[in-house]
Amino acid sequence: MEDGDMLHMIVEQTWEYPMRMAYDPEAKRFVETEYESLPHRRRFTKPYGWIKESGTPPSPHWDCILMTDRTPALGDEIEIRVIGVFKRSDLDHKYVAVEASRGICDLSELTGEERAELNRLYPQADPGEGWFGKKEAEYCMEHHPKAL
Is the residue at 82 inside a domain? Predict the structure, then answer.
């Protein structure tokens, strides 16, 4: 992925929904599941979804966290720049993005408050897991399979 390449995030989960939301591709709508939302349980207020160009759930796709102060609605499509990744040993990585209009390019440029919020989402990491910047995110996108 080149520096100027923009991607798009589809919003699947927001702070407003304490239960996990899932996309139903046949009905083309979001439905509430029986499961508690992990971000909500961990007081993570940022939108969560997937990178449109990677596929659509339940098919393989890349999960995405958007570091924004906006409050988008489920299904909103937002132009993004990937700035980092939470690498997982099961390869179900979580890509960190900002709105394309925001002037930062790497995870290290987030505010201390934003980094603290990310750490609330995944407070522990197994060996080989953790938060990494843009270069590692690009490597993962190029070399690792998409997750279900």
Answer: yes
User: Are the C-beta atoms of 15 and 66 separated by less than 8 Å?
Assistant: no
* Residue 2 included in any domain: no
What is the tens place of the pLDDT at every residue in 10-40?
999 999 999 999 999 999 999 999 999 999 9
| Domains identified in the chain, total number | 1
**Where do we find the tokens 């992925």?**
1
Helix (H) or strand (E) holding 131: strand 130-133
Q: Which two structure tokens, joined as six digits, stand for 123?
A: 């407070």
Residues 6 or more apart in contact with residue 80 via CB below 8 angstroms:
6, 7, 8, 9, 51, 64, 66, 97, 98, 99, 100
Report the SS3 class of residue 75.
Answer: coil
Structural domain of 75: 7-143
